[in-house]
Structures are given as structure tokens and as C-alpha cells.
Write a structure and sequence with these properties.
Elements: E1 2-8, H1 12-24, E2 30-34, H2 40-51, E3 59-64, H3 70-81, E4 85-89, H4 93-102, H5 108-121
Parallel strand pairs: 1-2, 1-3, 3-4
Helix pairs in contact: 2-3, 4-5
């Protein structure tokens, strides 16, 4: 089991989790929050607190809204301190559903690649 943390600009993390739970039912070991009005240090502290909870799974995939933004920078800072974290940007509902349905089957590094690929595959333009 891999735990998931969604970190976004604005309330998108909570909205994605709610949408995912509408589709799949209650999702365990998922935590989402907004970076609004939070410093990088505070975001890193929140990540650290989540992953060090004694009930939290050993491995964690952090899905962030934007590469290069505060979410991304904080997640990478946390990853430098913790070896059992992977970070993927561009979170969308396809990625969340992929994560939840495959996190028991794949090891963390492969799961991160799968989630990223599934997120890209979920983007399309109807012709």
C-alpha cells in the first residue's frame, strides 16, 4: 500500500479526492491540502507530519498541481529528507484514479511512472 498526498494551489486537492471518492468510494491513506498562504517550510512540515504518522504507509506518492511551483518545490524538499517518496506534477482525476486502483500492485517508483502515463493518456481532444 502506498499513501498519497495531493498538494495543489487552491482547493483542487480536496475537490479531486471528493470526485475520486464519488467514483470509487472512501479512499484510505490519502491526504490533500492547498498551499494557499503557506510557506515552503510549512508545507514541508505538513508533509513530514503526514508521512511520520504511525498509521501511514511506508511509501508515499506526492501528486502536485504544478511543476516548479510551491507545491513542487516543497515536495522535492521533503523528498531530499525522506527516501520513500516520489513526486509527480500535473495532477488530474485520471492520475488519482490510477493511483488509487494500482497502489497495492506496484512498487512506488513504478507506480509513479504508471500514474504519470495514465494521466497523460487521460488527456484527449474529441475529433
Amino acid at each position: 500500500m502506498v499513501g498519497g498526498i495531493l498538494i495543489t494551489h487552491g482547493p483542487m486537492a480536496q475537490a479531486l479526492i471528493k470526485a475520486g471518492e464519488t467514483i470509487l468510494g472512501k479512499i484510505q491513506y490519502i491526504y490533500g491540502f492547498s498551499t494557499t498562504d503557506l510557506s515552503i517550510a510549512t508545507i514541508v512540515e505538513r508533509i513530514d507530519s503526514i508521512v511520520h504518522d504511525e498509521e501511514w504507509p511506508h511509501d508515499t506518492l506526492i501528486l502536485v498541481s504544478l511543476k516548479g511551483g510551491s507545491c513542487w518545490n516543497a515536495a522535492l524538499t521533503a523528498k531530499k529528507k525522506l527516501s520513500n517518496i516520489e513526486v509527480v506534477s500535473g495532477i488530474n482525476l485520471s492520475m488519482l484514479l490510477s493511483f488509487v486502483t494500482k497502489r497495492n500492485e506496484e512498487p512506488l517508483a513504478k507506480l509513479a511512472q504508471t500514474v504519470m502515463s495514465d494521466g497523460i493518456r487521460g488527456i484527449d481532444k474529441h475529433e
